[in-house]
Fold:
Amino acid sequence: MSLERFSLRDKVALVSGGSRGMGRAIALGLAEAGAKVMVAARGEEGLRGVREELQARGLVGATVQADVVDLASVDRMVAGTLDRFGRVDVLVNVAGTGLRKPVVEVEEAEYDRVMDTNLKGAYFASRAVAPTMMRQGSGKIVNIASATSFVGLSKVTVYAASKGGLLQMTRAMAAEWAPHNIQVNAVAPGFIRTDFNTTLWENRALYDWVVGNTPAGRLGTPDDVVGAALFLASDAASFITGQAIVVDGGFLAGGNWPL
Structure:
């Protein structure tokens, strides 16, 4: 197989939630691999920073303000990408939010916010790009799932439900769109240190538990997630669909035991 199949040269990629953390790292990675990247996020300040970094690196990209909870905004996000670049070859659904609360304390509005952002947003963004990908006869959708798509953890039940649903959505869309040569896959990060959750790791008991139960012996970084996303976005992954690549330093694989 030619290594050219790993290149994203001349591809157009749309990344939701691409102004910070994993989304930003993935967007920049896609651009470095040759893609023309449209970065979508709610905040203009973060988008400005991405634009400046793309320009400083001599990469091709643009930004659009969008909120995946607002379906009209999702449609504008896709339309803006088509207007700017003429096609969409890759969609990476990164936009997400979390909630850490016991079940009995979760309010309906909090539940809706997490589910709407993490699951509904990805669903309708995927739906919005599907007609274009069908006309093109090809497309890649990469959903950012989570280790909690596979394992339950206390006090993150709504987040886990949304990410579990995202994994099943990935599989179902993969089955439905395979005849159109659209591959739908997921990347499931484990415990990743980002600007968004940096204060979480100041809890020493939590930090020690996570690192102690991750065979790699450390937290992940946003850059650790990029390689899997780029692979699934490339033509090298054209016979892979409905799958999830877990990027967790071995957390789900198991761990050491005192033998």
